[in-house]
Design brief:
Elements (H helix, E strand, L loop, with lengths): L6 E4 L1 H14 L4 H19 L15 E6 L3 H15 L3 E6 L7 H9 L3 E3 L4 H11 L3 E5 L11 H13 L3 E4 L21 E5 L2 E2 H5 L6 E5 L16 E4 L2 H7 L15 E4 L6 H14 L4 E4 L3 H7 L4 E3 L10 E4 L7 H11 L5 E4 H9 L7 E8 L2 H11 L11 H14 L2 E7 L3 E5 L4 E5 L10 H16 L10 H22 L9 H19 L1
Parallel strand pairs: 1-8, 2-3, 2-5, 3-4, 5-6, 6-7, 7-9, 10-19, 11-12, 11-14, 12-13, 14-15, 15-16, 16-17
Antiparallel strand pairs: 1-10, 17-18, 18-19
Helix pairs in contact: 2-3, 3-4, 5-6, 8-16, 8-17, 9-15, 9-17, 12-13, 13-14, 15-16, 16-17
The structure holds ligand NAX.
Length: 527
């Protein structure tokens, strides 16, 4: 299912399959020239945006541009872009990193437009050249879809020099040094001000969105890609605020306090009563339906939110359409028993924090289950889970996060568990083995203690609502989880940037205060 402000990204191989017939049908290099024109356009904007002391803005005419040109078609894009910039009156310089393999027709076009061509012999020569040229803008046309591994030899040297010079960089297609499929950032990767891509987003644009600068998608006439067996290609999605607003549960005239989905929350301990309060309060603020609390922090939870129905043991909690377990509840032996009981319930279950540690230590409590299980680890908890359930994935986080999440989900699936894993981070990954989402929070204000407890409560409330007939009913679990994550991020931004002192740190309690406003905001965007 897709919605109107979904961004979709694809594997390089699927993009190439979709691109091939379009490139073949067009005149020689026409698609590449179209791509190059979009790159040049963004480069001109970057130059214009530069402050020039005394006259209030950068001028394109007479400014200089340099492009680092690699061995493939990405370099071809860069050379045609330079030709375009030369026609705008810029002094352009092609810096060939693999002179014998530079795209011949594009190189010729660049030369004919007046471009100077340089062939630095080694990293020192490259550094001296860039220092001498001091271009107003640099194009990173080293490598794009064909990238593998860290930028090689001289290419690996360029990023540091450009950063030191403070040169704004426009990356062609994908910043060199970022893996197109995994988004892994290699040492020596270029740090662009903007990235211009063509036709379809690559997975790296979502998985490493914070490394791409401003992202621009230029149309080159490519349709949705198919996999090699003809089925729709696998996509990685990022949903926006409008989608979250469309799907957020809203009570209608027939609803009562149960019908919108009751969520039960097992959280907190004598040591961590705050986690119980945060998770339960977040659930209260997310939907209009009942929230049940189970655990030893009844007094604190009720003092904070008297509308919560509290009990002390899970078996007496009463009916619920979803369970949340874990925040601050400890990892003692009795928690494993409680968790086993919760996991035996035929309703969606969200496990966070301590529950994930307990699960990693007592894997036998995880039996076959059809009802959704949502695991919400941060990196450390993910590693503990991976070591238990998918040893081959353990330690992968530093590299391919999306691949590691998919691997854990697959291992759980092979045990008959219908799991969705949400891996926390500035870019949160959510995957159930069929639908995968990468959600950039936009800021890192929510990286604060208790923020995860709030998120767990919100996800629980949303999954309870999904059991009913509302807008979420037909929505796949990872998308519903992403909806909660979007509103959590919006609440963090509101709390940190719009309420109180803009740009000030927040605590998790401030997030609670902003959930209602965040829901109103995303619903307003949805219209
Ligand atoms: N097919 C087309 O006509 C179009 C292609 N496009 C461009 O073409 C690019 C893909 O072109 P290619 O398939 O030639 O691939 P690339 O140009 O991305 O890279 C291939 C070359 O880079 C070298 N390389 C790989 N990894 C490297 C590393 N880590 N460090 C240094 N060099 C490395 C390889 O030896 C290879 O020669 C896209 O990213 C896009 O920029 C666009 O112009 C759209 C149209």
């Amino acid at each position: 299912m897709t919605h109107r402000d979904d961004f979709r990204a694809y594997f390089a191989a699927d993009i190439r399959r979709a691109e091939a017939p379009v490139v073949e049908a067009a005149p020689t290099d026409a698609v590449m020239r179209r791509a190059a024109w979009a790159v040049a356009d963004v480069a001109r904007t970057v130059v214009r945006a530069q402050e020039v002391i005394g006259d209030g803005g950068g001028h394109v005419y007479g400014a200089s541009a340099a492009a680092l040109i690699g061995a493939g078609d990405n370099g071809g894009d860069g050379l045609y872009a330079l030709a375009d910039l030369a026609r705008s009156g810029m002094a352009v310089h092609a810096v060939l990193l693999s002179p014998d393999r530079a795209h011949p027709r594009a190189l010729d076009a660049c030369r004919r437009a007046g471009g100077r061509v340089h062939e630095p012999a080694d990293p020192d020569a490259l550094e001296q050249l860039l220092r001498r040229l001091r271009p107003a803008v640099a194009l990173d046309a080293i490598v794009g879809l064909g990238a593998s591994g860290p930028p090689r030899e001289m290419a690996g040297h360029a990023a540091g020099v450009l950063e030191e010079l403070g040169t704004p960089v426009v990356a062609v297609d994908i910043p060199s040094g970022i893996d197109p499929d995994t988004g892994v950032r290699h040492p020596g990767a270029i740090r662009p001000t903007a990235t211009v891509t063509f036709g379809l987003f690559r997975r790296a644009h979502l998985l490493a969105s914070t490394d791409c600068g401003a992202l621009e998608l230029a149309e080159i006439g490519i349709g949705a890609p198919a996999a090699d067996d003809g089925r729709p290609a696998e996509m990685l999605t990022s949903i926006g605020t409008a989608t979250a607003g469309e799907l957020w549960p809203v009570p209608d005239v027939s609803d009562n306090k149960y019908s919108g989905g009751v969520v039960a929350i097992r959280a907190g301990s004598q040591r961590y009563p705050g986690a119980a309060v945060l998770a339960s309060h977040a659930a209260v603020m997310s939907t209009s339906s009942m929230v049940r609390y189970v655990g030893p922090c009844r007094d604190q939870v009720l003092a904070d939110r008297p509308e919560i129905v509290a009990s002390s043991v899970v078996t007496n909690a009463g009916r619920a359409q979803a369970w949340v377990s874990g925040p601050g509840m400890g990892t003692g032996p009795e928690t494993a028993q409680e968790l086993a009981w919760i996991l035996s319930q035929d309703v969606p279950v969200v496990l966070d924090a301590d529950a994930l540690r307990v699960l990693a230590e007592h894997p036998s409590i995880l039996r076959r289950r059809d009802a959704p299980l949502v695991l919400t680890p941060h990196a450390g908890e993910f590693d503990a889970l991976a070591q238990t359930f998918a040893p081959a994935q353990a330690g992968l986080l530093a590299g391919d996060r999306a691949g590691a999440v998919r691997g854990l989900v697959a291992e759980l699936d092979s045990r008959g568990v219908n799991a969705t894993v949400l891996l926390k981070g500035r870019i949160t990954l959510i995957d159930d083995g069929r639908s995968a989402f990468a959600q950039d929070a936009g800021t890192s204000w929510s990286a604060t203690p208790g923020s995860g407890d709030v998120l767990a409560g919100m996800i629980g409330a949303i999954l309870a609502a999904r059991e009913g007939p509302g807008a979420l009913a037909d929505v796949e679990v990872p998308r519903a989880v992403a909806v909660a994550q979007v509103v959590h991020s919006v609440a963090a931004r509101l709390a940190a940037e719009e309420f109180g002192r803009p740009g000030s740190p927040i605590g998790a309690s401030d997030l609670l205060g902003a959930i209602g406003e965040a829901v109103a905001k995303v619903r307003a965007v949805a219209g």
